[in-house]
Amino acid sequence: xxxxxxxxxxxxxxxxxxxxxxxxxxxxxxxxxxxxxxxxxxxxxxxxxxxxxxxxxxxxxxxxxxxxxxxxxxxxxxxxxxxxxxxxxxxxxxxxxxxxxxxxxxxxxxxxxxxxxxxxxxxxxxxxxxxxxxxxxxxxxxxxxxxxxxxxxxxxxxxxxxxxxxxxxxxxxxxxxxxxxxxxxxxxxxxxxxxxxxxxxxxxxxxxxxxxxxxxxxxxxxxxxxxxxxxxxxxxxxxxxxxxxxxxxxxxxxxxxxxxxxxxxxxxxxxxxxxxxxxxxxxxxxxxxxxxxxxxxxxxxxxxxxxxxxxxxxxxxxxxxxxxxxxxxxxxxxxxxxxxxxxxxxxxxxxxxxxxxxxxxxxxxxxxxxxxxxxxxxxxxxxxxxxxxxxxxxxxxxxxxxxxxxxxxxxxxxxxxxxxxxxxxxxxxxxxxxxxxxxxxxxxxxxxxxxxxxxxxxxxxxxxxxxxxxxxxxxxxxxxxxxxxxxxxxxxxxxxxxxxxxxxxxxxxxxxxxxxxxxxxxxxxxxxxxxxxxxxxxxxxxxxxxxxxxxxxxxxxxxxxxxxxxxxxxxxxxxxxxxxxxxxxxxxxxxxxxxxxxxxxxxxxxxxxxxxxxxxxxxxxxxxxxxxxxxxxxxxxxxxxxxxxxxxxxxxxxxxxxxxxxxxxxxxxxxxxxxxxxxxxxxxxxxxxxxxxxxxxxxxxxxxxxxxxxxxxxxxxxxxxxxxxxxxxxxxxxxxxxxxxxxxxxxxxxxxxxxxxxxxxxxxxxxxxxxxxxxxxxxxxxxxxxxxxxxxxxxxxxxxxxxxxxxxxxxxxxxxxxxxxxxxxxxxxxxxxxxxxxxxxxxxxxxxxxxxxxxxxxxxxxxxxxxxxxxxxxxxxxxxxxxxxxxxxxxxxxxxxxxxxxxxxxxxxxxxxxxxxxxxxxxxxxxxxxxxxxxxxxxxxxxxxxxxxxxxxxxxxxxxxxxxxxxxxxxxxxxxxxxxxxxxxxxxxxxxxxxxxx
Length: 998
What we know:
By secondary structure, this protein is an alpha/beta fold.
């Protein structure tokens, strides 16, 4: 959405004012105090979201806008009346956020899209679930946030974290504690009653576990029995299915297919016999080609032509020899010409041809060299003077930077914490060492009694004085004896285990102290008594550090003056380097011009003499080129004769020199071999007739092979054996299908249902018959043993319950226990509800995290890009913990926490995050105008320019309003707008809107 125009009919100090903001450029609005800037800001928000409660009196206006789909609308707000119209002037009474912006309210808009100075120092808004659900999740995220709030309220109504809480579960727990105290005050029967209850609970637990395991084993055994029973059916079905698949591969087969196959086989046998007889005739004689008798037969015509030209060839050789002698005389004269020229004074090189020389360029380079020499002379007289610094600030060898000092402070705090922890461990060890070792406990007595009881039960069984009940009682007593002995062993060794844990912690503390001492600059305290002296020492080192920092700052100021002098001297040096380079370049250009034109190295004053002598060389070189042209023409004729002769000699394969005599010899030899070839031509014609007849037989064989392949393809067979098997299966296809359906129906009836049949069939396909049989045997044995054990536990449970009922004759104990059971049941129900709410809350948290994870990384990446553009790549953004923790990283990959940022840097960081979130909303639902109100207050001029450059670029696609009350900011914006060629500039004066320009 982009605002096209604003009509302020009656709004604050504005009366019948209008403004058409730019849609493709940054809108910069400058207004001093009382000029109507804040009123304009409020008008834009009121047009979007409506007037606030009780703030509609005397306010009228409208706003035109265009949506991303290109449709235009206008919203009207006339005091209490409100509506908007589309392009066809159809009125709609709904509010804009409700139908287009997924319920975005004014508060959310002001949190993200409308930003002032106070909004750019902190990220508390990112921790708000309302903001996060709207911008990180979108479309349904706000509903998740509302449901989470309802669940948290319901949990708070059930249970409070404080022991003094008055919530429902807290009250029930308090009542349960009261009942437990009452039970403690009852008769001595309670101890026995409590033990029986514990035993009853343990037996119920064991019984339930064993019954559950027995039921699972039975279910698994039934499944195995079903698989084993269905195995024979499956094996038959598998065989039938294989035959079906074989028959299904036969898509179409003619009724006379077998007869066609037999005819093809007989026909191919006859063709094979005929080909064998004809091949014997072909093998008796091998035809001879004309090239075998006369290898150079293809060159016969060329040979006749060259034989005619032999006289011309011999005369051309004589002319070439005479011209070579004339060329040699010129070479001697040209080489000696160099000695006659003073600037060359050396023999001329025949390989270095003269080039066309640009003498005007030579005269220009000569003049340029003189100018550069004069410039270098005057530069040497202007050398500036540079003073020297006599003293350097002292350096702290241990700690040089603020970051190193912060590490020292952190190590000091860790040392203090470790010393206190070490002292606590020593105190606890002394306390444990003073305790008396436990050797005898009540658990040992119980263990001995139950073991003796077990021995008595076993003895009664073996002496035949009691039945199986004695052996069962003995086993139970033995188990209880072992259980009580384990409790005794834990009580005896509890002190030793605690001491071992404390000693391990002490070793870890000592190791950490040693690690810190390795890096700490100075002696570390050994005990807590040394901490006071250590604190004093750290205070002195802190004062020394900051004193040293101040001294370095003072030295830095003193060096500034020298730096400026050195800067001027460097400029002078750089100027000298430039002039020297220009002089050297002029010399280089002069010498390069001489070398490029193949002229001798000499001074620029010899330019005229050089041009005159070069002209003599150029004339003599022209005469040599004429001789070369004549030689090239004669050589071309000789080469043509030689190529023709070489081609003929090469085709003959004879080792002859390339000359006229060789061509005459080859011509005579060709005439003799032509007579021999005429005698062999008749035999070749007979052999050619045999080959044509063999080709006809091959065509017939190929035709038969194609017909045979067509029959094989009809049944998808690879060979004759597979063809026979598939044809046979195709003929009995209906019988195989009926057998397949019958077996599958039997298996379906055996399984009991369609779903059970599919599961059974899938398991049968694995073919693990032996494994199933072994598992069935093992499960049958386990089920029998578990049934016996379950019966024993149920007997024991019945005996314990009878004893509990006997002891429950006291009504007070019974009533108290019943009340306790009711309260415990109620606690379990409420805890179940609380845990359900907790589980639901956790699921919603994970759902919210998944929603956020899809959007947050994109927002963080875009915010990082914005920050890098605003700071020219100086800083990068790192955002974590749902936006609650933000750090920046400079070019050296050093991270800086928000606590040490400058105010201007912080404003840039939070502005980049806000803009990234606003653009993310626009990409998902609807782009909305962004309003920035005096955000440059804490920016210096350079930072304002960089941020304005970024906003100018962003304003080309996203509509942005930048309001300011500072004339300097407006001036900078106009300069940046002129530089970028974009921007719309507006000035407000007491309710008047005026267009400005750069």
